[in-house]
Amino acid sequence: MELRLPAPHEEPEFRRVVAAIPADHPTFLHFHRADMSLAEYLDVLRKQALDIDTAPDSEVPSTFLFAFVDGRIVGRASIRHSLDHPLGLMTGHIGYAVLPEFRGRGHATDILRLALRHAHAQLGIPHVLVTCDPGNLASIRVIEKNDGVFEDERLDAATGMRKRRYWIDVLPYDG
Predict the structure, then answer these.
(1) 29: nearest Cα among 62, 78, 71, 69
(2) pTM of the predicted protein model
(3) I want to staple 120 with a disulfide (CB 3.0 to 4.6 A). Which of 82, 157, 163, 170 is the partner?
């Protein structure tokens, strides 16, 4: 598996993903609009990572990467550079998702593992917070397979939902 942005010649694969966005995860592609070309979308993602031309107080800079297996996009990861925004302690540093047709194959575990490596190597984040819904047993297993240490479960005042919070020490991360 590779965690990276699509290259310009991979636009057909990107379009396949846009068409396959799961109904249970309409925000699968952060910052994407239906009328965007791949080049425009990549520009938005680069600016978000560098905190250029982003909406004030919307979020902290984040790196958004796609998970590729054999040339196919199977999922994605979003890595927030800090927990400074109001929801940081509820959403954590890393969010990940797998497209429905690729679920149940261990891809989420690999995506989180590679996102942890990126968070440490590229962003210098020593301790990563990862959160999930209490009923999401698959995500709980993914986080625990990546050495997540359960801290607590909290009520998210913004959504009224509970979140399980795990910390992963990524100094050094061998996962």
Answers:
(1) 78
(2) 0.91
(3) 170
